[in-house]
Amino acid sequence: MNQVKIILASASPRRRELLGQIGLEFEVRVSNVEEKVTAVEPGLVVEELSEQKAEAVLAELACEEDVLVIGADTVVAAKGRILGKPSDEKDAIRMLEELSGESHEVYTGVTLLYRSFRGEASCVQRHVFHERTKVNFYPMSPQEIEFYAASGECMDKAGAYGIQGLCARYIQGIEGDYNNVVGLPVGRLYQEIKRLLQTA
């Protein structure tokens, strides 16, 4: 797998850490694509966004070598409503109040674009999927919500929290892949990459 050039189309430091954790060698290229969503269902929304990121990065690659581009996007969905990244501290407090004492889902969409060359001709294989994890929060007092929002940890995270940081104190439990909540379901990702390259 490490013989194929792998590019992560994401600026997320958490996704970089997770890919490194499973021993993949990769480069990071951030797409500046303007995100446009036509889907409504959270799983399809993240698939659509991950696809846009991966396609934008692949389009910028002029080199004639086999390359695998990984695009990813994560959202939090509470009672069917998508919660993105908070715009400010007040917005973060609103989201945390919504999550407190309740369960919600975290969806991460992943797109794999594998471009291979056979002579002068190129072929692109595409595989898109999403992973869902259910997260249960303990009730948070108004003071706890304000404290966490003021920490600044929540500002660049979907749903205004990071499960791997201070917010771990409010997590009652999860059903599904923990790494998916952090930002990338790396176990499934590895298996999907392996399958894609075996059939290429």
Describe the structure.
This protein has 200 residues and is α/β, with parallel strands linked by helices. It contains six helices and seven strands. It has helices spanning 13-21, 42-60, 89-99, 142-150, 178-182, 186-199; strands at residues 5-9, 27-28, 67-78, 81-83, 103-118, 121-137, 171-175. Strands 1, 2, 3, 4, 5, 6 and 7 form a seven-stranded mixed sheet that branches. The longest helix is centred in the N-terminal third of the chain and has 19 residues, at 42-60. The model has no long low-confidence stretch (mean pLDDT 93).
Distance between the termini: 12 Å
If you compute it from the alpha carbons, what radius of gyration comes out, rounded to the nearest whole angstrom?
A: 18 Å
The overall pLDDT average reads 93
Beta content comes to 25-35%
Instruction: Determine the fraction of residues in helical runs and give it as a percent range.
Output: 25-40%
The H/E string reads EHEHEEHEEHEHH
Largest sheet: 7 strands, mixed
What general outline do the C-alpha atoms trace?
Answer: elongated
**Total helical elements:** 6
Low-confidence stretches: none
The class by helix and strand makeup works out as alpha/beta
Oligomer, anyone?
single chain
* Strands, count: 7
